[in-house]
Amino acid sequence: MDKPTVLNKLNEQWEKKLPFVLFSMPNTTKCSLYFQDNTSLHTTENFLEPGFVFSPFHNAKESLIIPSTVESTLEFDFAISDIEHTQTPIISCAEEKKEHVQLVNTILKKIKNQTVEKVVASRKKDIPLTKLVITELAMRLLQLYPKAFRYIWYHPDTGLWCGASPEILIKREGNMFSTMALAGTKKNINGQVVKWSYKEMHEQQLVTEALVTNLQKIVSVLKTSKPVTVEAGSLSHLKTEIQGVIKSGKTALPKIIFAIHPTPAVCGTPTKEAKNIILEFEKYDREFYTGFLGPISPIEGTATIFVNLRCAKIENETASIYVGGGIVYGSIAEDEWTETENKLATMLKVLSPFM
Ligand SMILES: C=C(O[C@H]1C=CC=C(C(=O)O)[C@@H]1O)C(=O)O
Q1: Is 237 in the pocket of ligand 1 (CB under 6 A)?
Q2: CA of 121 to the centre of ligand 1 (A)
Q3: Could you tell me which residue ranges the Chorismate-utilising enzyme C-terminal domain spans (predicted)?
Q4: Of 50-59, 293-302, 334-343, which gets the smallest average pLDDT?
Q5: What's the domain count of the chain?
Q6: Which residue, 338, 304, 306, is CA-closest to 323?
Q7: What pLDDT score was predicted for residue 83?
Q8: How far is CA 73 from CA 35, 76, 116, 279, 299, in A?
Q9: pTM, two decimal places
C-alpha cells in the first residue's frame, strides 16, 4: 500500500474517533496500521489471537487488543528523511520538582530501612497542545527515533497514546525467546564515552538478576551477555541481553510475560514491596506507562512485546508525558529529577510542532 493511502486511513480513523494502532518495529522503515470499524473494546487473556496488545502497568491480567485481519491491516514503507530536529526548552516547574524530590526521598527512606532495594519513581508532565495533526505526529515519531519501537494507539476508552520505546519485554519465536535488562541513564554528550558509576551498574544488575531468577522457572537454557552501552535518542542506557529456550514450546505467552512483568526496570525489587510503594506514594495513575504492548503474529508462538516507555497520552488538547527512573541506595533526589527532565526530551521533540 502507498503511504498517502495509509495516512488517509489513519486520518479518517482519528476524525471518526474509531480505534487504531500504528506501529513500526525497531530499525525498520515498515509501518503497520490495524484499525476497527466500530468502537468495541476487545480484550485478550491468552494472547493467541493476532493483533496488537496494550496493557497497563497495574492490573495487567486482561490486556486490550486491536485484532488484525487481512481486511483491517494496512502497511507502507517510509524513508528516514530529514526532519526538523527542533530542540524544545524544558520549562521546569518548581512545584513538580518539589513533589518528585519528596517522592525520591520517601523511597530512599524505605531503602535505608531495608523495605526495598530498588523502586522506580515516576511522574507525568502535562503540556498544553494547540493543534494536533495525526499524520504529522505519526511521521515525526517514525522518523525521529528509527532505533525505537514507535507506536500510536487510539481507542475512545483509553485516549490516544504514543511513544518510542527502547526496551523489549519479550521476543518469542517458537520456543526461543530473548529479553533485555535496561537501566541506568546518562545524557549523551557529543564525542564523550559514557562512564558508568557503581550505583548505575548496580541498578542495572538488579534488573538482570530479577529477570534471570524469574525466567529460570520456565526455561531450559539461559544465556546472558555482558552489559553494554546503548543509545536511545539523546540518552544512553546499560543493557544486558538475555536469551533462552522455553522448557515447553507450548508455554503460553502470558505465562512468560507475567513471570517477568513488571521488571525492576519499571517497578523495583522486591517486586511486591516496590509496587506497593509506587501505588501508595506516586501521586498519579501510571495507566499504560510502564505497561507492555506490541504485535502478536498470526504465526503461533511469535510475538515481540515492548515496555511502554518514553510515551505520552494525548487528551483534550493536553499531552501528558510520562517519565521515571530507578532509585537505589546512593541515588540523589536532585539528580533523579534531572534524569526525568532529560527523559521528557524524547516526546517533547516529537510534539514540539503542536505546542
Ligand atoms: C522508567 C523509565 O526508564 C527505565 C528504562 C531505562 C532506564 C531507566 C533508569 O535509568 O532508571 C529506567 O529503568 C522511563 O524512561 O520512564
Answers
A1: yes
A2: 9
A3: 97-343
A4: 293-302
A5: 1
A6: 338
A7: 76
A8: 7, 10, 45, 37, 16
A9: 0.97
